[in-house]
Amino acid sequence: MSILAEEQIERFFNVLNQSSEIIQKSKDQSYLDSLIEVLDTVQSGDVQALNLAKADTTAVSDIYATFNRDDYDSEVLRKAIQMAVLKAIKVDKIQANYQITPDTIANVVGYLIAGIFNGHRQLSLLDPAMGTGNLLTAVANQLSNSIGVKLSVSGIENDDAMFELAASSFELQHIHAELFHEDTIQNVLAPMVDVALSDLPVGYYPIDANTKGYNTRSTTGHSYVHHLMIEFAMNHVNKGGFGFFLVPSQIFKTSEAKQLLKWMQGHVYLQGLLNLPTELFSNKASQKAIMILQNTGGGAKQAKQIMLGEFPSFKDQTAFQKFLTEIDDWQRNDLLQ
C-alpha cells in the first residue's frame, strides 16, 4: 500500500474517531452507537441530524468539513471504517461475534474467487452472514480491481448494529448492494448468485422451529448455525456456482458432521478445504479453514484432486507465494478442466 493511501486511511479514521468520541461523550452512549451515527451522517454532512449541543455540533461540523468523499477510493474508506469498528470492539468490550475478518484472510478468499472467475464480465455475490460487511466489501473491491468484473452484491445480517454499520459502509464506498436485515435461517428471499462467501458464525441456532426444511438440521436438540447457513447459501447459488466459507477446521470431526455430509452428497462437490495458519488463532480448537464447495449441475464435476492443505504463515512471504502458485496450478489443472 502506498504512503498516500496509508495517510488517507489515517485521515479518514481520525474523522470517524474524533466525531465518534465527541458524540459518545455528548450523549453518554457507546462508541459503537456513536460511530453508527457518524457513518450515517459524515457523507451528507448533516450534523443537525445528530441532535448535539451547539458547541459539539460546531466541533463535529468542523471535522466533517475536512472530509470530501471524492478524495478517497473505496479500499481506503473500507480500511478506515474497519479501524474504527475495531476500536469500538475494544472500547465497548463487544462480544466475539463482532470480530472482523482480517484482511489477510479476505484477500485469500478474493484471490481464490478471482482465479476461478477470471475472464467473466459479470459476477454476483451473496454473504448470508455479512456482519459489518468487511469481508464482502473487501472481496468486492478486490475483484473489481483485479479482474475488472461487474459485480452484483447481496448481504444478509440479523443484528441491528452490524447491519447499520454494513449499510453505511456500502454507501460510503459507493458499492451498490441489496441488503437484507433479517434472520437468514428464516429463509430470506435472497437472489440466486454465482458465488456465496461468508465468515460463518459458529455455534447452535436457538430456534428449532425455524430449521424445519433444512437437511442439515440436527435430529435431536439445536442445530449448528454454520451447517444451516452453508445449506441456505448453496441453495441460493446457481448450478455450477461456488461457495467459499470460513468454517472450523474440525467441521467434519464433530458428532453433527453426519447430517452435513449426508446433505452434501448429491447437492455439492467438496472441492477444497484449506486450513488457515494456526498463528491467527488462540488455539488449535479455534482454527478455521476455507471450505470450497461447488453446486452440481451447469457442467460442474468433482475436481480430479480435492485441494487439501494448510496455508503457511502469512509472515513467510516466500512460502505463502509458493502456496498460492500451487492453488493456481490446482485451479487450472484439476478444478477447471
UniProtKB/TrEMBL annotation:
Pfam families: N6_Mtase, YtxK_like
All copies of domain YtxK-like N-terminal helical, residue ranges: 10-88
InterPro entries: DNA_methylase_A-5, DNA_Protect_Modify, S-AdoMet-dep_Ade-MeTrfase_prd, SAM-dependent_MTases_sf, YtxK-like_N
Domain DNA methylase adenine-specific span(s) in chain numbering: 110-306
Gene Ontology terms for molecular function: DNA binding; N-methyltransferase activity
Superkingdom assignment: Bacteria
Classification via PANTHER family: ADENINE-SPECIFIC METHYLTRANSFERASE, DNA METHYLASE ADENINE-SPECIFIC DOMAIN-CONTAINING PROTEIN
Protein name: Uncharacterized protein
